């Protein structure tokens, strides 16, 4: 009984530390539970994109579980630090290590049970909500909500294992210390640190090469692999830079006597320097968390916003046929018949003959043919006759003159050398036959010339014939018509593209990206908030004695809060600044990856990114203001 | 010359509440420039409250307290911190040095708060460090030196502003006997150079180094002893007897 009382009293007395921890753990519990139950939902598993969606969720779960473990270890470390004094006292009063272990175990079990109960309540309530959100986002009606007992069990067991890990860490800490150390652990006796010049330089080099990779990432097949490499370098580099460069900077500030010996700077610079070793890592973590939130949101929101454009790009008309021969009368007959049966008025909007796309890169006016791995552009040649028919124009071109269309290329070339031929280019503003009909990841460019036979030789592939069909009717009729027509015409998926069918396929994929992107961002935001909160508490406890001594000597309340503000602003300015820099460097890479998904619109991605970054800064300032209040309260708490 | 004048000082905690406590009832005393005064009394006698009021850390309920022409009763909240760092020096039982600063920067701290130039700070520290024998400790950190050394750093921090009055709260409380003696001799030397010191202490031995001992009990000045021409041992035994008498309530011997 005494044990239980001691254990629970301790939690209650330290509720300022325990309360947010339990809330955060509950939210992590709930998020894990929700993802597990979506993963196990039979109707999702059996749906058309079940396996892809499950793969995505599994990836998210891996991320979430590792975040949960890291976060819980971090906070538990701070909690155990705040309890050392208390445990030291018990030890001196005659508690053996064994007795202390019982107290710690009861505390952790209490933590586990409380967070599991709250987490389950949250999870079950929000599970339905998030399920419906997912269903709406994916626009799939066949999903059926069912409560899954398996998810409860897995989540309970998983968190139990994490708590066992925490218990193990606490026990191993207990073993190392004797009662006298337990007493002293609360006072901060870190040795003064030397500036690690080497790791600072190494950090800058690694971070720089990460940035270089990100900036130079081209929208090719290699982009994702390159981006992953860049992320790895940036993570590593950020840690190194924060933990060493910040010390270097502070040491420099300290050497500048005029700067250092001012009441504000003296306290904050020496304080930061004093705890920079541990500080650097937590600041770097906050910085990376913010960067991750920004990148995840930019990616998923851009995809969601760009979704319609992709559909339009991939499916320029309601039904697009890409055949190796012009439509036969028989095929035309089938279309007419079929459209009557399904009450869909179908008519042929355009027809054109084109070369198959030529892969390559544009260097000045030179087009270098290349392979699919390294290509950034695909050129397609269309005859002037087809162009005039499609645009209802009557343009004439001289020999070696050509029209050029590539809407997302900013600097339009005026000349082109390809396969030994020189073309004078004139850019056009609209092109009704524009399509990325093969869903290629590179940008499509179209060139309109008098005679396309010469250019067909470059690909050694036969011509392709595009037929754009437009249909009228309800979505339901259109869907049925589109799938039946494909069977009747006997065309493969590469030859036959239906806008309605593509939409039903794409929306779930993009929806789940957005869904998971938002879930990850929310969880990362919560973790970031908690990390900042606990950092403020931990530092407030460390700084309290110092501030109170200075107040006795002659630091006024006003000067105290000024000092606190400038100190915290400096400390928390670093991570958000770092995150913004990271995001700026990540921007070209994100754009390249989005280009792979046919999102070329620069202004849109820029607008989304700025929006995300600005909201992130606002949110961060809010956390900063809220947690600074807690810091001030701690500083002004009398100790005696 | 009169430095500190206290008249009918009263301090009541939790006024007009059921748990009202009258820490100081009626304290009157004068401190002359160049005095070295020890304030003695049992726990709860009110001596720390008195010190806190002189230090402007707390405000008296009623009475008069004037330090070198400044009326502390009417001193505005905003001016208090400035007043402390310009006119007072502090020495604490637990030294209260900042572990994040080197010893030198700890000594500079009150000057930094008063926005004194770095060159001026350097000029001031040299003679003080020599006098206290701490020159070699200046570039180290407080957690790297012993308790006696820490207290000498704290003395240097108190002295560097040339305060009118040094307030010491149980300065030997955390020191062993030889370090205590060394510190008290240091106080005597500083005092002989003209520095006024007020020291709160439990220890009769510590008090015997002062020029005058004031006994406080139940919130009033109960008794005073002057060092005068007595030897230190004589003074010590006088103090001990008085302390014992006050503790046992045997007041008749004192008057």
TrEMBL record, chain A:
It is found in: Cell membrane. InterPro entries: ABC-4_Integral_Memb_Prot, ABC_permease_BceB-typ. Keywords: Cell membrane, Membrane, Transmembrane, Transmembrane helix, Transport. The lineage of its organism: Bacteria, Bacillati, Bacillota, Bacilli, Lactobacillales. One of its GO terms (cellular component) is plasma membrane. It comes from Ligilactobacillus aviarius. Its main location: membrane. This is Peptide ABC transporter permease. Belongs to the ABC-4 integral membrane protein family. GO terms for biological process: transmembrane transport. It is a multi-pass membrane protein. The chain crosses the membrane at residues 18-36, 56-75, 109-131, 151-171, 192-215, 227-250, 281-303, 509-534, 568-590, 602-626. The keyword Mitochondrion does not apply.
TrEMBL record, chain B:
Pfam families: ABC_tran (PF00005). Keywords: Amino-acid transport, ATP-binding, Nucleotide-binding, Transport. SUPFAM superfamilies: P-loop containing nucleoside triphosphate hydrolases. It comes from the Bacteria. Residues 4-243 form the ABC transporter domain. InterPro entries: AAA+_ATPase, ABC_transporter-like_ATP-bd, ABC_transporter-like_CS, MacB-like_ATP-bd, P-loop_NTPase. CDD domains: ABC_MJ0796_LolCDE_FtsE (cd03255). GO terms for cellular component: membrane protein complex. Coiled coil: none annotated. One of its GO terms (molecular function) is ATP binding. GO terms for biological process: amino acid transport. Belongs to the ABC transporter superfamily. This is ABC transporter ATP-binding protein.
